[in-house]
Write a structure and sequence with these properties.
Length: 513
């Protein structure tokens, strides 16, 4: 069938789905197989010529297959290009160092203070070894003890210490620190007590975003008690550093830990609140859309450019542009395009747990909710859709929850139904109190009092479901990371995806989709 209704269509044989899928497969193959470059480049050249000839002869189907193979090979090549250090003067060449060296570089993220240590990443510009200064490049993970100077994002700093290679997992199933850092483009680490700021710099936009975030944190901490402010910072900004470990564990045990990780849920709730506000103000749709986009862009910046937030914001922008130009673009196509854009910007995002959980949850909601709504048709309408949405998301992320966190919070379907409305209220009151804080902290305090009550209720709910003896089976022990049987994923997802189609085939009188 010809692609008569454009690039983004609902059929799974259309380009956007195939291109995204094969690009992902290429990245995965590139991660686990080291293939020689010359055959790859020759294959790409041949396939490009073949695809062009097939299109000229109007053999669209075969041209599409050839295009998908091209995408697969590009994924392999692109992963190798981004992941592995190729330069002869990369900082990894100098590690591990037997003697102390001096390196100079730019701080590329916000330094984090924890347990009297400051952790940050620098993009190295030069190294001084045995009195010789050499130009170099690459990223270094830095741990600074007892810092004597204040430094921040964008500062050029001089560090002295021994370079070392990150350690891998010490035993099977343990956390692999080396792999975790490598997915962030970091191959070397350094511990130091000697950090000197040479000059300030960095993106003025990011500096403004960080200052804005700091101001929001000050308002939250001023208007709420310590525990409640730490929860709100986690929900609004993804800042979990000050959250007590037991509170974090309660959220994880009840399957609601995702609310403490800034994600598409938060972007969706912000979008909902903005659209409600604009409707009350009777703003024209196009003007409302134009206002929404920079606000969501601002939220992406203050939350640290996190993949799930970027994904959700891209989906919103693509959807709004589609509506503005009069196109009815399917949500799965929007999701695929957002995924492809993020992976083109950084293919290593694919190995980020939040990236996979975020995309799979949304894909589950979009794809599986209509099917479950039919199955739950006897339930009242106010319960049917929320339950179908919660179940769909949980079903699509269950294997990954087991894979990454060694647990299956089965009670999550119920707790998320209860918690979701509360999170909407917490976010709305949180942003309102922060906005009022620009005018008067006293006004912000009144709104924060309502949030204190709401957050308190949220904590009571997670505490109850986490420790209730009648719900001791809410978590099941799962295999560790390295011993997880991957064949389960290869069986689970095809079966899950095929369920609506199998039901439609064997029950033609009941169409679920």
């Amino acid at each position: 069938m010809e692609n008569s209704d454009g690039f983004l269509t609902t059929r799974m044989n259309k380009p956007i789905y195939g291109i995204t899928l094969f690009f992902i497969l290429g990245i995965i193959i590139g991660r686990y197989l080291t293939l020689p470059f010359l055959p790859l480049y020759l294959s790409l050249t041949v396939l490009f010529v073949l695809t062009f000839l097939l299109y000229l002869k109007k053999k669209q189907r075969w041209a599409s297959y050839s295009l998908f193979l091209i995408t697969l090979l590009i994924g392999i090549v692109y992963f190798h290009y981004v992941y592995y250090p190729h330069s002869s003067n990369h900082i990894v060449v100098y590690a591990p160092s037997e003697e102390k060296v001096t390196i100079v570089g730019e701080v590329i993220n916000r330094p984090q203070l924890k347990e009297r240590k400051i952790r940050f990443t620098i993009e190295v510009k030069k190294i001084i070894e045995n009195g010789q200064e050499k130009s170099t490049q690459g990223r270094v993970w830095v741990v600074s003890y007892f810092p004597l100077e204040n430094y921040d994002y964008g500062d050029t700093v001089r560090l002295e210490g021994k370079l070392r290679l990150p350690e891998g997992a010490r035993e099977k199933g343990a956390f692999d620190w080396q792999r975790y850092l490598s997915y962030q483009g970091i191959w070397v680490e350094l511990s130091t007590g000697n950090v000197t700021v040479e000059k300030e710099g960095g993106s003025s936009l990011m500096k403004w975003a960080y200052k804005s975030r700091d101001w929001m944190v000050r308002v939250i901490e001023h208007t709420l008690p310590e525990l409640h402010s730490s929860v709100l910072k986690g929900i609004m900004l993804g800042d979990k550093e000050s959250l007590p470990p037991q509170v974090q564990e309660n959220f994880l045990r009840t399957g609601t830990g995702h609310i403490l990780v800034v994600s598409g849920l938060h972007v969706g709730l912000i979008l909902l609140l903005l659209l409600i506000l604009f409707r009350v103000l009777a703003l024209p749709s196009r003007l409302a859309f134009l206002i929404v986009i920079p606000i969501l862009g601002y939220y992406v910046l203050i939350t640290g450019l996190r993949p799930p937030v970027i994904r959700a914001t891209l989906m919103v922008i693509i959807g709004l542009v589609s509506l503005t130009i009069g196109r009815d673009t399917p949500l799965l196509a929007i999701l695929s395009l957002a995924c492809l854009i993020i992976l083109l910007l950084n293919p290593l995002s694919l190995f980020d747990a939040s990236f996979k959980l975020s995309f799979l949850a949304v894909a589950g909601i979009v794809y599986f909710t209509p099917f479950l709504e039919i199955r739950l048709k006897r339930l009242p309408r106010w319960l049917k859709r929320p339950l179908a949405i919660s179940l769909s998301a949980q079903l699509f992320i269950l294997p990954l929850l087991a894979f990454y966190f060694n647990r299956l919070p089965l009670i999550g379907v119920i707790t998320n139904l209860i918690v979701a409305p509360l999170i909407t209220i917490v976010l709305a009151l949180g942003f309102l109190s922060v906005a009022l804080g620009m005018v008067s902290l006293a006004l912000a305090q009144w709104v924060a009092y309502s949030n204190w009550l709401t957050i308190g209720l949220l904590l009571e709910i997670t505490d109850f479901f986490s420790f209730s003896k009648s719900l001791t089976l809410s978590n099941l022990a799962c295999p560790s990371f390295d011993s997880f049987p991957f064949w389960i994923l290869l069986v689970y997802y095809p079966v899950l995806i095929s369920l609506p189609h199998l039901f439609r085939k064997f029950n033609p009188e009941k169409q679920p989709l």
